[in-house]
User: What shape does this take?
Amino acid sequence: MSEDSFNMSMRKFLKQVGVTSQQQIEDLVRAGGAGAGPLKVKVVLTAEGTDLNHVVEGQIDLP
Assistant: This one.
């Protein structure tokens, strides 16, 4: 696999993660399932067959 092919594949995956995650969070907020105050979120990235376990935590201020 060339480096260009790797970079394009990586960007495609990350775009899918970002877009679909945003849609899910927006749907949750619109449905009233997020409650009040900041929404605490966490993303866990793993890769099958590896020891990758990357955690990103944060919060989203709600309207």
